[in-house]
């Protein structure tokens, strides 16, 4: 019986797990809206995530078109995605169509934290 040994160089040659939309969305739960204090996923600010190989594109909105921290907020989304192993690049596009409405976009948990009860 032959015993196969593995070493650190073998592990380094193993490709990283494929990047998935679910993995990207999970990472984005760590990006918090600095004014509201809730993450972009629970607020419903992420409208779409597309993964094409190692390139990720994110379509997002803001709570208001006049958000004073928009540039920093978008950069935080981009940086969080690019920190995921296997991601080579991330583009973040901003849209206001449809306009963000916490009653329809936010998670039930976020609605409770925002005081929106139905």
Walk me through this protein's architecture.
- The chain has helices at residues 8-13, 21-28, 40-43, 70-82, 102-105, 108-114, and strands at 46-52, 55-60, 89-94.
- With 118 residues, it is an alpha+beta fold.
- The chain has one domain: GMP Synthetase, Chain A, domain 3.
- Strands 1-2-3 form a 3-stranded mixed beta sheet.
- The radius of gyration is 18 Å and the shape is globular.
Task: Summarize the structure in short.
This protein is of the alpha+beta class and 118 residues long.
Layout: helices, strands, pairs:
Blueprint lengths: L7 H6 L7 H8 L11 H4 L2 E7 L2 E6 L9 H13 L6 E6 L7 H4 L2 H7 L4
Parallel strand pairs: 2-3
Antiparallel strand pairs: 1-2
Molecular shape: globular
Total number of helices: 6
Mean pLDDT score, rounded?
Answer: 87
Bin the strand percentage: 15-25%
Low-confidence stretches: 1-14
Q: CATH topology, what is it called?
A: GMP Synthetase, Chain A, domain 3
Overall tally of domains: 1
Task: Give me the count of strands.
Answer: 3
Give the full name of the CATH homologous superfamily: Fe-S cluster assembly (FSCA)
The CATH architecture classification is: 2-Layer Sandwich
CATH top level is Alpha Beta
Portion of residues in helices? 25-40%
SSE order in H/E notation? Answer: HHHEEHEHH
